[in-house]
Amino acid sequence: MRKDIHCTVNGMEREFNVDVRSSLLEMLRGEEHAHSVKKGCEVGECGACTVLIDGRPFVSCIYLAIWAEGKDIMTSEGLVDKNGKLSDIQEAFISEGAVQCGFCTPGFIMSAIPIINADRKYSRDEIKKWIAGNFCRCTGYQKIVDAIEKTQEKRLREKGLLK
Amino acid sequence: MKINCVINGRTKEFEFDPARSLRELLVSDGHFCVRDSDDREGFAGSDTVVVDGIPVYANLMLAGEVDGCEIRTPDGLADGRRLSVVQQAMVDAGVVQSAYNAPAAALLLTWLLENNPDPSKEEIKDALSGIFIRDAGYEHYYLAVKLAREKIASGGYTSEIAPEFREELSVVGKVKPKVDGRQLVAGWKSYVEDRVEPGACALVLLRSPHPHAYITKIDISEAEKMPGVLTIITCENCPDVFYMQAGQGNPEPSPHDRRLFNRKVRHVGDRVAAVVAETEEQAKAARDKIRVEYELLKPVFTVEEAMASDAPLVHNGVVEYRAGAPENLDEYNKTADPRDGKVIYQFPLHGDIRHNIAAAAHGKIGDVEKGFADADVVIERTYQTSQIQCTPLEPHVCYAKMDNDRLVIHASTQVPWHLRRIVAWVCQIPENKIHVIKEKVGGGYGSKQDVLVEDLVGYATWITGRPIYYRNTREEEFIANSTRHPMRVTVKMGGRKDGSITAIYMDVRANTGPYGNHCLTVPMNACSKTLPLIKCDNMKFDVITYYTNIPPTGAYQGYGAPKGTFGLMMCMAELADKLGVDYMDMAKKNRVEEGYMLEILKGLGEGREGNVVPVGSCGLGEALDKGAAMIEWGKREVSVDPDWKIGKGFAMIQQGSGLPGLDHANCDVKLLTDGTFMIHSGGADLGTGLDTISVKMVAEVMCVDMDRVSILSGDTDNCNFDTGAYASSGTYFSGNASLKAALDLKTNVLDEAAYQLGEDVEDLELRYPGEVHSLKTGNVLTYAKLSHDALTGTGRGQVTGKGSFVTNDSAIPYGAHFAQVAVNVRTGEVKVQKFYALQDAGTPINPELALCQMYGAALKSIGHSLYEGMVLDADGTCLNPNFTDYGVPMISEMPDDFKAVLLDINDAYGPFGAKSISEIATNGAAPAIGVAIHDAVGIWIRSWPFTPEKILKELGRM
Fold first, then answer.
1. Do B487-657+810-954 and B85-193 have the same topology in CATH?
2. Which of A109, B26, B537, B761 is deepest in the core (most CB within 10 A)?
């Protein structure tokens, strides 16, 4: 059975006709061509498919597409501006050396969004807890935490919340 | 609705909109080789499929109509990787060239043979009557059917496919299947459109409805708000970068006279705005919301209008020179209108845009006035040629995307490296940011020598970061693309009663249209590829090219030569007629021969002093003798129907093989670990068989079978520089680079073998099927063992060969084309009964492909001569921008007796003696047919096309 789904993806109003059994991951990769959403384990363990749903990180492989009705979804594509310029968190992942094979990167970045958007500083331990659902085999996580930490500090400074 | 059908024997069920076309249904199911080349016009047959046993155009059938039907598509013919008998026969016959329609033709011939195992020529013609082939000229399709029937009957071929050359060689000069023939005939992924990924965005253009106007206001505010819109590019926000689209050597002999979008539009169809959106529908909807206000200007359409003293100026901008600026430039620019932009000459082309002159050239040898004074008869005649469209089946197309901040361009192009340079310039980015991948080209014919869509698609992709797919509509191919320059060629020729020519003057006035692509070189070519046919001490030429407001022009197979040859050979025939000497005798008396010094070339360099060289290998005499015998020159033919009068004509022809001193080709070849070979060639094969030539060079030199050699070509990341496939340079330049790479590899393989065997290089030789043999010790080292040992932990490294080819030597192909026509004196109709194309291509490396290129080029030029021509109304709108109204030769328009003959000539400079083959073959038809019409009914038709109206008028019957 198929069903029409209306939602917002990266700020654009979308309508999809999906098989009711399909995952949000399949809808985003297959219909929306949002290829930053990576198909890693398909059982919700690796976090490579993490997207924001109404601002909160979810693994899209175990989230049914039909649940997205009326939701506001954001993928890593939505972080790049109209002229192709990367966002600060993406640049930080590159400059801190947090990107190796890169397969997990978009998922980590989506998990980090609530942290860098917050108005208070998260400790490294808190950051680790927030990204605990994302798996990385290359980097040993250290650089990823560095990138998130630096970006949150930069954002807080911009808001005048940190000297 | 639910649609149940059987496709290629498999039961399918679709949920599909029944009002969409059958082609859309089939493409959605992965049958992408059911193509569209005519925007659903139902003409070209790229969309041919068989439904319930009947061939149909899939574009013209609704998806809903096939419920319960059995459908066959071209990709169902091959059995996995194994081609069908018909497909293989087509490859072997040489008809698979640019091949956009080859899969559809294979399906039709399969259908024919299944229903009629022993078809007559008429029945084959009928089966192929709805399919347009521009490249191979249909003739060898009859051969393909014959081969297929032989294979079915006896398991092998008994007919000769093509003559073979150079007994001492194993693959060069031999009939061998084209290396990319399989993928092309089977309909496997090949072309740009096959590389487009899901999610690609669309780009559509808003085009000018006016031939000449300033854009006074352009409002995109409503359009920008439309759903899915990513960007809109106009003259207000495009880069302020002047360039030109012709893919020529750098610095270009054409002015930089345009930006991506200009404040002034200069032809109906000129770019006004580009809309990039997520879907084509969204882009088109947004395009409708763009509001443009124009200030209309008076247009000029002809050379005569452009040269009038009060003519409106097509370009009245600021003129700049990158080198060689005249001293009075500031004064000259005082009257410039900034709205016109700029015209930037890379070096002086003797243009004068305040008089609509884009470029000019003049030159002479001897004293023509003295020559005319010495003549018994002097005539001066003016010949006019029309605007002709190249009509590649695959329109201009581009798919661009970003890959890690690099712009990747999948292109259908003849000039990958010029393309990269021009796109880099337009985007103002360095070349290392761009990767051009030349895909298979579904017909180029010169029109894909110009960077007509990649400039814009590349820029739009660069600024949006989004993948963008763009494809010209067929109408855009006519109105906003590149076409043959219309030309007025006046020839003054003096001759003596003994048939000798005492002086020739050529005055060439060319119409370049709105922009100056090839504005110097195409018209110069009308002189440089014709005057050197004639031994004459007094020759002079003036070439002037004018800007006008017709649709754009550019390169087209033959370049300026078809126009020049039409003028020169017709005038020679007219002079012979006046002198009362036989035209054939006159041609033979005045033609050049080996060793004759071509002084005239001095003034015919492209913006520089030309190279004076002697005539090298030359088959002109043999072409004339053989052709005259074949057509029985001098024997009058009489029709049983008194309305039809029969006449004969011919023309001498020549071209070049690339541009010595300007062109450059590179090739690398490496020995792989198992003893096979990989070539990386800069050469851009556009269906001509250039890749096959490169493979043959390596196979021949390394003594291996061709299937031990693979090739990647025309990829700017992975291959070395090549100026591109134009000016008939492929065989001579890229082929010679491949030969040099192969010879270098041979040296290095022998060197490595000597090291590994501990022997002297002098004692070693290469032997089939791929080994080094010692003449001294009898030791044998296979390439596989040699390569393995070179690549071990103690080896000396990969064995490679490198070839870079430049030259000042010319390899000029010659020939003569003969026609016998019948002219109906009541209707004015002209029928080409016989057409014989005799050519000296040096050693034909791929004889069967060479023949098919000759047929294709000759048939094209028969079309140009008899009926092709763009028709503009008083406002400069093209009235026939589609196949049906324009008219291109279909199989039924072929001459009844059509023969291509390769003369056996060996050239000193070409690879294994080869010269170029295809462009030259477009030069002969117009004068040969024109002379034949005179022979038949006594009238000289001096303008293309030779329509019934013109014939009846000249006959005084209209």
1. no
2. A109
